[in-house]
From TrEMBL:
Keywords: Signal. The keyword DNA-binding does not apply. Residues 128-155 are annotated as: Disordered. This is Sporulation related protein. Residues 135-149 have a biased composition (Pro residues). It comes from Cereibacter johrii. Residues 165-217 form the Peptidoglycan binding-like domain. It holds the Pfam family Trypsin_2. Residues 1-23 form the signal peptide.
Amino acid sequence: MMKQAIFLLWLGAALPAAVPVWAQEQNETRVWVQIEARPTEAEADERARAYAEVFPDVAGYRLSSGWYAIVLGPYGTDVARLRLQDLLAAGMIPRDSFIADGRAFREPFLAPGAVPPAPEAEALAVPGPEMLPEDAPPAPEAAPAPLPDETPAEARRSEALLLASERQELQAALQWFGFYASAIDGAFGPGTRASMAAWQQAEGAEATGILTARQRAELLDRYGRAQAELGLETVTEEEAGIRITLPTALVGFDRYDPPFVHYAPKDGSGVQVMLISEPGDRGALYGLYDILQTLEVVPPEGTRSRTETGFTIEGRSADLASYTHVELAGGLLKGYMLVWHPGDDERMARVLTAMQSSFRPFGDRALDPGMVEMTEEQRRGMLAGLEVRKPRRSRSGIFVDPKGAVLTTAEAVAGCGRVTIDREHEARVVTTDAALGMALLRPVHPLAPRVTASFRSTEARLGSPVAVAGYPYEEALPAPTLTFGALDALTGLEGESDLRRLRLASRPGDAGGPVLDGSGAVLGMLVAPETGERRLPDEVSFALAPAALTARLSEAGIEPRRAEGSGALAPEDLVRLGDGMTALVSCWD
């Protein structure tokens, strides 16, 4: 049966060559398919005879270089091209086989047909349809003959014949599968050898660090199939001035929204790509770095790094992962973002490697901000078409020490997955007092507030003017605003000594903000408005008294500052103080 299989392989391999000479033009160029070359005649003869057990038209010639070529043919050029394609597709000859015109051939060392098929194979007839029973199952297709294996010495010699592009392709394949992490330069140094050995070891083969022809073919075949599955293609985005390899089987061009070129998911892949392109300087780079971290597709957890010429943002949550890279050069910001589901990490690691190694900004242009219509708000935020990640709620707070500790309401931090100060600084809750409705926060990394609150130690006169510094519209405004009113009572509506009643119209976002007297001293912290059945007039608000606040701060190990001055400040100075001591406290899921 084995010899019958060999004969069938021989027959199948011979079919592409079975083109009658009379069917070709007499003056057609004759060419060969060169499948190997060896440095000695003995080695070449041995290899040629091994191939001749499968192919009927093997020949061998000494080359002008002194090596010995093993070839199939001769054929006409069209037939040779088809034969090369068919045999490569079947995996029956090395991937580096090529069409040779014969100009380098010298005397033959093995003439075509010099090695006949095994006698047993010759005696076997291939049955025609009339010889088979009617109910006979179809004959199984013969498997392609595997490439002859090589010793390390033979593998090194065949490797030496590889073109530079072929050596680079092997490095790219090793890199794709996670075995190689250096430059794709075609130089097989210690790093490449170590990666080859690692691949061999992973395949259960001897880790020689030199891939045989069979191993090279297998590695490149897997690489080609993996790339085809993802549709990796080089995309040249002329409008953005970016050239990059993208997984076109997973994403497709969607739209321009400067500074983004959007590639949307294909067939529910869950993968998104955004190319980033805009004119800008270092300030614009820093601004873009901050803005991108507010997007839903950039989870807050993950590594961040920023230099004066670029940044990288890695984001990861249970449901989303993203990688963003931006570079500044020549007054242009260019980069890319890849978004995927964490369950697809292994495949996306390969896609990301391809994108990182292929990313090339080119030209002196970036996306024109006027190429599509946008509102002024969209243009200022540079976030057209993107969903910005928003906190569950935001409230105000008071900086109470030089390292950035913040006093705010208990309601501001209730049920939060995480808490931030001034949008980007992570904070932890040190203590809460449910009875008073206050909480104390500390930033994870120390801050340096411009102003630290000073608390009034004496009671203010009834009717005296006051102002609340806060964020009435939560995240909507970039800085706190002052709302003016007056002190109406030194207790709450039911005589609570820890409360001060104000004649002042406040909003939920103002809660936690400092209530200032005319000198800039803190005479209380605004509490959240009541949400029960009782409905108070809009201009009725309440603040926690300074004595209650300073007592809790002392218990937490913070020595509160006492106000010294008593004169009225100019409005602009009061605004400056309120702005410097007021923090934005945000609660995130």
